[in-house]
UniProtKB/TrEMBL annotation:
Record-given protein name: 5-formyltetrahydrofolate cyclo-ligase
Keywords: Ligase
Pfam families: 5-FTHF_cyc-lig (PF01812)
Highest taxon, organism lineage: Bacteria
Key word Ligase present: yes
GO molecular function: ligase activity
InterPro entries reported for this sequence: FTHF_cligase (IPR002698), FTHF_cligase-like_sf (IPR024185), NagB/RpiA_transferase-like (IPR037171)
């Protein structure tokens, strides 16, 4: 199996069983899925999220509840610039209701050098993960392959996106995987 075949398998399964939420179809995305808010609720209660003061987060729809809760809790967020790969925007003291579209984050934030930021947690979307912390993304965009941050990486996944062991080489490792029913700490 190739990375592309694995992605298609996951996207097709989520679509076939009507488990994908906006944006649909899930193909080409880190899928938003039925139960994602419940999975986010599990991740929000972890010590890693509770202690984090500065969070680097992807712009995927599935991560929206986590981004909103971080801002509500007074945490600072760093988001990738929507149109400039490799650029990042810092959001602090922002009412999440102002951020109607995550693509507008650059209007409310300031450009920052990622290397100079004391990031406590990284939130990323996923296409597939495994029980050992292996992660496969959508194949482009955030998080870039070069992204090296000394902080725990966390993601959300539907149970159908979780494999005992990925049938391909993982693109990276994650430290926390929240599904609607459980928290996986590889």
């Amino acid at each position: 199996m190739t990375l592309g075949q694995l992605r298609e398998e996951v996207w097709n399964t989520l679509a076939r069983y009507d488990l994908a939420l906006h944006p649909t179809p899930p193909h080409g995305h880190h899928p938003n899925f039925l139960g994602a808010k419940k999975a986010a609720g599990l991740l929000l209660r972890t010590p890693e999220f509770q202690r984090a003061r500065l969070i680097l987060a992807g712009m995927d729809a599935v991560l929206k509840p986590l981004r909103e809760e971080a801002l509500k809790a007074g945490k600072a967020l760093i988001l990738p610039h929507p149109d400039r790969p490799g650029e990042f925007v810092l959001l602090k003291d922002l009412d999440p209701r102002k951020l109607k579209r995550v693509r507008e984050a650059y209007r409310y934030g300031v450009k920052v050098d990622l290397k100079e930021q004391p990031i406590d947690l990284v939130l990323i979307g996923a296409v597939a993960v495994d029980e050992e912390g292996g992660w496969v993304g959508k194949g482009y965009g955030f998080p870039q392959a070069w992204l090296a941050v000394e902080a725990p990486f966390a993601t959300l996944a539907h149970a159908l996106m979780v494999y005992p062991k990925l049938p391909v080489e993982p693109e990276r490792r994650v430290d926390l995987i929240a599904t609607p029913a459980r928290l996986i700490r590889p």
